[in-house]
Structures are given as structure tokens and as C-alpha cells.
Amino acid sequence: MAQTKQGPASTGSTALGSLWKAYSEQTPDRLKFIDAFLFFLMLSGVIQFAYCVLVTTYPYNAFLSGFASTVGQFVLAASLRSQVNPQNKDEFKEVSPERAFADFALGSIVLHFFVYNFLG
Amino acid sequence: MIFSPVAVLLLAASAVQASVLTLQSPKFVVTDALGSQLRAEPFSLVHRTGTPVKLEAKDTLKITFQVVDKEDGKGVQPHQTFIRFFDPSTGEEGIQPIRVTGGGKAKFELNPSKPPLYLPPTSTEPLKVSLIIGTPNYDPITVRLFDLILPASQPAPTHPDEASFHVRPELHHTFRPDQKLPPKAVSLFFAGLTFAPWVVLIGLWSQVTPRLTHLFSPSILPFILSLVAFESLLLTYWVKLRLGEVLLYGAGLGLVTIFTGRQALSSISSLRKD
């Protein structure tokens, strides 16, 4: 009797599946919102880098500013997420979620300013 | 008086007999390295030797004569006796003073294997050799004797700075060719690909939109608006503003944002604490 192997698509029976289940059930909506943003940034950066490697680096400053914008924004959003997460409240005693959001906004604006400068 | 004293003196000087020098037994001999004579001829002050004298590398040219007074044949030692080697094509000359004894006897030797320093570098034309004799109370002598063909010399060494005095060769710079854009189809495809993550983002966000209950309350809205204003300022900067302007507007807008932000975030935190 051959045991049918269950592929990763079957939920709950493999490590990835249970991870995904736990994530989608236990993460608050706000954090999922930020996670979607993070995923989008990662995709965008990967595609830009792939274009640079595959096709051309010709407007090199444009590539650098685009890639740096995705990376920088990813870092800012990740730090926002970790500071806003209620489970991390003990880690960030002196940083309230509002303060974290203000930092995020300020950092984003400065990043955008530099990126626009370099974009050309 | 018509005759001034100077004219009298001149007349008196010309009345003195203008003595003339001449050469006695002038001859030149060309011998080769072994000592055998290749050419031995007399030369004369009156007519030039026709055929040029050709010297090979190891030959020797020897010139001998005696300077005598034409009238009485007595030997004269002139004050100045020179042999001049002149190259008409380059205009260079070499002068050799000849030692003349008290009795007027003179001897000169030229060996191309030990060339004297005054000889100019050879050119295509032969050197014109002439004799120059000058002494007081006698008429001077400047007479071309014969032509001399020397073995070819090395070219004159060029000065190390010589090149900088002439026009330099023109420089041709080669530049890297301009970078080209990839073909439009490729560019469009990858541009579309780069915008694809936005679709993914919109899709994901549509599933997890958090509740925006407080977004439009009067304490929060100004903050959101000032953030939007900041982003639009940056976009305008990209399009048409300059750095000084954007910094100026940004400073003003930042001040506004600080106040609206404090108000918004403090209201949110008070809500959270409730």
C-alpha cells in the first residue's frame, strides 16, 4: 500500500502549511496590511534588479534610485511593523506606536526626497 | 682748399705701393690609408681646380704652400691665414686657422677618421674650400680653391627638446560609444513587469483593509492631508522645482506637519488608552 504523499498544498499537514495557517489566523489586520506592503516592495526590488542584470544598466542612476527606494522603504516599513506589533510592547517601552508611525512618515519623506534627487 | 686733410692722407696711402701676396708651390695630396698617393695636384689662386677632391673614410688630404711677396719672392708670415669649408646648401661653414712659419711655409692635414670639430654634417653638395689670407700692408686674399667631397657623416644629434618647437601631430581621441537604450519592446515589457507588483499589492490590500474609522475625523485629517501635500511637493520638485525652492516649501510644510501630526497622533494615543 503506497502511502500517498501529501504535497505542500494540503493545509495543516506540512510545516509551511501550518506556518501559513498560524500567520493568517493570528496576525492582526493592521500587521497584515503592512506585510502586504513589504511583500510588494520586495517584488518590486527583485524585478528591478532582474532587469538591471538581464537587460542593461544604462540609466544607472535611475536603477540605483529605484532599487534604493524599494530597499529603504522596506527597512522603514519593517521597523514600523516591529514597533507597532502589540506582542513587542515590552521591547519598545519608550516608543509608542504613534511615535513609530511619525518616525516612519518622516523617514519615508526624507527617503523620497533623496530618491527624487537621484532619479534625474 | 678743395682737398681736405683726410683726402690728402688717402691719396698718400694709395700712392704707397699696394703689395700683393702670392703662393709659392701650392699643392694638395690625397693619400690613402696605406700611404699610396691617390691624387697630387697643384692648386692655384688664379683658377679653381675643376674636379672635386673626393676623400674616403681612411684617406688623408694634405695641403702645403708658402706665402711669399709677389715682388721679391720673400716669405711672409701673414697675420691671418684660414682655410674655410663652406656648405652652400645648409649655409654652414668651418674655419681652420693655418699655422704659418716665419718664412711663410704652411701645412694643413685633414683626416676624416679624426674629423675636426668645425666640419659641418655632410649634405648632398660638396664643401667649397677657400683660402683666406689677411695681413697689413698687403692686399687680402679670398680665393676658392677646390670642392671637397667628404664621407657621409651621421646625422646631427637632435636636441631632446627639438620636438616641442614644431607642430605636434594632431591628437585623435577615441571615446567610448554612447550607451544605447534597449529596444522599445523589451523596455515596455519590463516596464509593465515592474508595475505588476502594484496589482499584487492592490489585491492583497483589498483582502486585509483595516478599518479606517477615524481617518476623516477633524483631528486626524489635517495630518493625512499634510502628508499628502509633502508627497505632492516632492513630485513637483521632480518635475519642475529647484532645490532651494523645495527646501523652502518643505521647511514650511514640515512646520505645519509637525503641528498636525502631534494633534493627530496624540488623539490616536488617547483613543488607544481608552
3D architecture notes:
The complex is a heterodimer of chains A (120) and B (274). Chain A is mainly alpha-helical. Chain A is built from four helices and no strands. Chain A has helices spanning 15-26, 29-54, 60-84, 97-119. In chain A, helix 3 (60-84) packs antiparallel against helix 4 (97-119). Chain B has two domains: 18-151, Macroglobulin (MG2) domain (Immunoglobulin-like, Sandwich), CATH 2.60.40; 184-273, no CATH class. Chain B is built from four helices and nine strands. Chain B has helices spanning 5-15, 184-208, 221-239, 243-273; strands at 21-31, 37-42, 53-54, 60-69, 80-87, 92-97, 105-110, 127-134, 141-149. In chain B, a hairpin with a 6-residue loop joins strand 8 and strand 9 (141-149). The longest helix of chain B is centred in the last third of the chain and has 31 residues, at 243-273. The model of chain B has no long low-confidence stretch (mean pLDDT 85). Classes of the chains: A mainly alpha (120), B alpha+beta (274). The interface between A and B is medium-sized, with 30 and 35 residues. Chain B: It is a multi-pass membrane protein. Chain B: Keywords: Endoplasmic reticulum, Membrane, Signal, Transmembrane, Transmembrane helix. Chain B: Pathway: Protein modification; protein glycosylation. Chain B: One of its GO terms (molecular function) is transferase activity.
CATH class of the largest domain in chain B: Mainly Beta
Rg calc of chain A: 19 Å
Mean of all residue-level pLDDT scores of chain A = 85
Question: What is the end-to-end distance of chain B?
Answer: 144 Å
- Average of the residue pLDDT scores of chain B: 85
Number of helices of chain B: 4
Radius of gyration of chain B: 52 Å
CATH superfamily of the largest domain in chain B: Macroglobulin (MG2) domain
How many strands, what sense, and barrel or not for the largest sheet of chain A?
Answer: none
Element pattern of chain B in H and E:
HEEEEEEEEEHHH
Q: What fold name goes in the CATH topology slot of the largest domain in chain B?
A: Immunoglobulin-like
The strand line-up of the biggest sheet of chain B is 3-9-8-5-6
Q: What fraction strand of chain B?
A: 15-25%
State the largest interface: A-B, 30 and 35 residues
Tell me how many strands of chain B there are. 9
What's the architecture of the largest domain in chain B, going by CATH? Sandwich
The residue ranges of chain B in which pLDDT falls below 50 over 5 or more consecutive positions are none
Family (chain B): Belongs to the SWP1 family.
Pathway (chain B): Protein modification; protein glycosylation
Main location (chain B): endoplasmic reticulum
Protein name (chain B): Ribophorin II
